[in-house]
Design goal:
It is a single chain. A five-stranded mixed sheet has the order 1-2-3-4-5. A two-stranded antiparallel ribbon has the order 6-7. Strand 4, helix 5 and strand 5 form a beta-alpha-beta unit. It is globular, with a radius of gyration of 22 Å. It contains six helices and seven strands, in the order H-E-E-H-H-E-H-E-H-E-H-E-E. The longest helix has 31 residues, at 2-32. The protein has one domain (64-221). With 221 residues, the protein is of the alpha/beta class. Helix 4 (131-137) runs parallel beside helix 5 (154-168).
């Protein structure tokens, strides 16, 4: 009986593991390519009706979105490329980023600029102002700013980051300049498709002045 129960538990573990792998695969595919849908009758569970994703010419539209991991300029990277440019740091994946319609990255370091001190150690980071243009040069069009490093250079670091990104033409969300701005949903239109992008973090390494400056779901209460 004990052997039978052990085998049953193993079957359940294998089934759960298989389900998790399937969900991960579907999630990756969903992130990599997004299809545009306009209004019309949608397919039902019973197969009744149809709603294909079509533009005015009657053709299906497709938007390709790439989501990267952390852009994090730690000390070794800064020592290699200096404070001016990343040079060819992302050269190997540049063709992938350039081929899509939208690249979204997690900006895991403030772009506070030289005036706030460049550093990539001790979990208190700050990148050169040129970093914003580096993003543009590598076909990164949008960044998420809400993460534990968002306030590493305090409120001024948040303000400088947003300013540098704006000047480079990089979209961003997760940190804000006002409560009104935080209340608005950030929507990017790509090939006629509206894509809403949100950015949240558990908490930040350093404090900041106003609650609305960073999207954080941590509450000390």
């Amino acid at each position: 009986m004990k052997h039978k129960r052990t085998r049953l538990r193993m079957d359940r573990v294998l089934l759960l593991a298989g389900s998790v792998l399937l969900l991960l695969f579907l999630a990756v595919m969903a992130v990599r390519t997004v299809f545009f849908s306009d209004t019309g009758p949608r397919p039902t569970a019973a197969g009744q009706g149809s709603d294909t994703t079509r533009n005015q010419a009657g053709k299906t539209q497709r938007v390709s979105v790439t989501a990267t991991g952390d852009i994090l300029l730690e000390e070794p990277l800064l020592n290699t490329f200096g404070s001016g440019s990343w040079q060819d740091c992302l050269a190997d994946i540049d063709p992938l980023l350039a081929a899509d319609d939208l690249t979204i990255a997690n900006m895991e370091v403030p772009i506070g600029g030289e005036e706030l001190g460049i550093t990539g150690i001790d979990y208190s980071f700050n990148a050169p102002a040129r970093t914003a243009q580096n993003l543009k040069d590598h076909s990164i069009e949008f960044v998420s700013l809400a993460n534990n490093h968002a306030a590493d250079r305090g409120t001024q670091g948040i303000l400088n980051t947003r300013r540098n990104l704006d000047e480079a033409g990089i979209g961003h969300t997760g940190t804000f300049g006002s409560q009104e701005e935080r209340n608005q949903t950030n929507v990017v239109t790509v090939n006629g498709m509206d894509i809403a992008i949100v950015s949240w973090t558990y908490d930040t390494n350093q404090p900041y002045d106003q609650e609305w400056q960073v999207n954080s779901f941590y509450s000390p209460d």
